[in-house]
Amino acid sequence: MPEYRNRLLELMDAYTKNEISEAGFDELCELVKGGKNSELKEFFEIELRTASFKAMDKQKLDRMLGEILHSRESGVGSRERPLSKSLSQGERLAPVRSLPDLLARSRNDGWWRKIAAAVAVVVLGTGAYFMFFNKTAKQTEIVQTQQERFRNDVEPPKEIRAMITLADGRKVYLDSATNGSLAVQGNVKLVKLSNGQIAYQASPNPSAGGEQYNTLSNPRGSKVIDMTLSDGSHVWLNAGSSVTYPVAFIGNERKVSITGEAYFEITHLTPTLSTSGEGAVPFIVEKGDMQVRVLGTHFNVNAYDDEADIKVTLLEGSVAVSRESSVVRIKPGEQAQVGPSTPLRVTANVDVEEVMAWKNGKFVLDDASIESIMHEVERWYDAEIIFKEKINYHFVGSLPRDVPVSKLLMMLELTGRVRFLVEGKKITVMN
Fold first, then answer.
1. For residue 394, how many other CB atoms are within 10 A of its CB?
2. Do 287 and 301 form a contact (C-beta atoms < 8 A)?
3. Can you spell out the DSSP letters for 258-320?
4. Are 296 and 268 in contact (CB under 8 A)?
5. Most CB contacts within 10 A, which of 223, 241, 404, 411?
6. What DSSP character marks residue 207?
7. Considering only CA atoms, which of 302, 290, 300 is closest in space to residue 327?
8. Of 362, 365, 369, 354, whose CA–CA distance to 417 is shortest?
9. pLDDT tens, position by position, 300-332
């Protein structure tokens, strides 16, 4: 990291002095393009506070970002004139690009969205973003009116409000349940552990009570719930989601059904003497006519009814996703998608950090539409969302999930593309 940072500083310094060569500028672009998110974040965290960056006026900073962006869009090394000559003549290769533009860009800007997100994390966290802006009347108005528009702020979930419906219809409310045994069903005990986790603990011959089903429901406005099934598999359930599962798994397969979003870490299980069959016992997750079939693996299923597609993202192992007669197999880092009227398809190299942000306590926006962002807000903060106008921009950024909703909305408002009005739990989205 020190060599990376030192070379970036050297090249940026040459840029600001109009002394950078064509080869030097190409190297600057390649360093920014090739840097890992963690490296870029560390670089900006340190250097945004230094005298050299603070002394750089907005025009120079915007020009540097715009030139780097343009070089990637046009292809590095494709310019016909040395950059230093162009700059000395007061010319630009690309229009000025400011942070608001970088935070709300079209979906075709690839790697640059990653860099903009890394910068946004830092500048929004330090309050240093003002050096990226011209304080126009519109922006001043936004700052002046935010306090009024966000006076009824919505706090993030403070507790787990999940509920388990037992096989006999009884309901166990987990927020008020004390640690220890909550219910016994057959030879399986349902317990709440000291860390708040829910677990099914099976005694020998767990299927003695026959096949019984429980449903774990995690409502909107609830923290993520963590549960261990009787086979040792782990399930994390997002807000506005539910999973239905056997108390004890019987036979040659383990099958559960979900609504909403869940992350699974499945235990590899071999058949017992009481079951027939050979090899591992498959674990199957169902949503309507879609099935995910695994043996032992880590994967995420996003199957909210208000989303256009069901998305299955694989983190580890191997997964087969099927609907009717169509089957696709995905590898780690790939995502299977299927819509009500669209066939199964596979996307490679998905942003796993964005997919898993909900479980890791973050909002991570990577080319996110305002609709998908507000779906998350609706579920996490248990809010009602009203769209006053159609908003076509996509957004990048990152923020912890344990903040009031105003923090997220203010970050989005910094782009100059969207405004919000918070009235209790009703949030209005405006151009």
1. 22
2. yes
3. EEEEEEEEPPP----TTS--SSPPPEEEEETTEEEEESS-EEEEEE-TTSSSEEEEEEES-EE
4. yes
5. 241
6. G
7. 290
8. 369
9. 999 999 898 999 999 999 999 999 889 999 999
Residue whose entry in the numeric block shows the structure tokens 């559960």: 256
Phi-psi region of 409 (alpha: psi -120 to 50; beta: other; left: phi over 0): alpha
- Burial classification of residue 75, based on how many CB atoms lie within 10 Å of its CB (0-12 exposed, 13-18 middle, 19 or more buried): exposed
Strands 225-228, 198-202: parallel, antiparallel or unpaired by DSSP? parallel
**Rounded Cα distance, 287 and 397, in Å:** 30
Reported for 87-94, long-range contacts at CB under 8 A and 24+ positions apart, including other chains, are 87/18, 88/18, 92/63, 92/66, 92/67, 93/66, 93/67, 94/66, 94/67, 94/69, 94/70
**CA atoms of 409 and 430, how far apart (whole Å):** 12
Q: Can you read off the two tokens belonging to residue 20?
A: 């950078």
Residues of the chain scoring pLDDT < 50: 48-56, 58-59, 62, 69-137, 273-277
CA distances 232 to 34, 49, 211, 269, Å, are: 40, 48, 17, 9
Task: List CB contacts of 382: < 8 A, sequence separation 6 or more.
Answer: 157, 219, 220, 221, 239, 425
Q: How big is the CA angle at 8 (ends 5 and 11), to the nearest 5 degrees? A: 150
Nearest to 40 by CA among 128, 117, 99: 117
Residue 87 φ/ψ, nearest 5 degrees: -65, -35
For the chain, the C-alpha Rg in angstroms (whole number) is: 26
Take residue 412 and report the two structure tokens written for it: 């989005």
Q: Residues near 268 by Cβ (< 8 Å), separated by ≥ 6?
A: 280, 295, 296
- Hey, how many other C-beta atoms are within 10 angstroms of the C-beta on 358? 23
Any idea which residue has 């706090």 for tokens?
155
Instruction: Let me know: does 335 contact 321? Beta carbons within 8 Å.
Output: no
CA torsion angle for 335, 374, 99, 44 (degrees, to 10)? -60
Report which residue type is found at 122.
Answer: V
Instruction: Report the half-sphere exposure of 368 (CA within 13 A, side-chain side).
Output: 23
C-alpha–C-alpha distance, residues 355 and 335, integer Å: 10
Total residues belonging to the chain: 431
Give the full edge-to-edge strand order of the sheet including 419-423.
384-387, 426-430, 419-423
Give the pLDDT confidence score for residue 168 in this predicted structure: 93
**Tokens in use for 59?**
């025009």
Name the β-bridge partners of 227: 198, 235
pTM listed for this prediction: 0.71
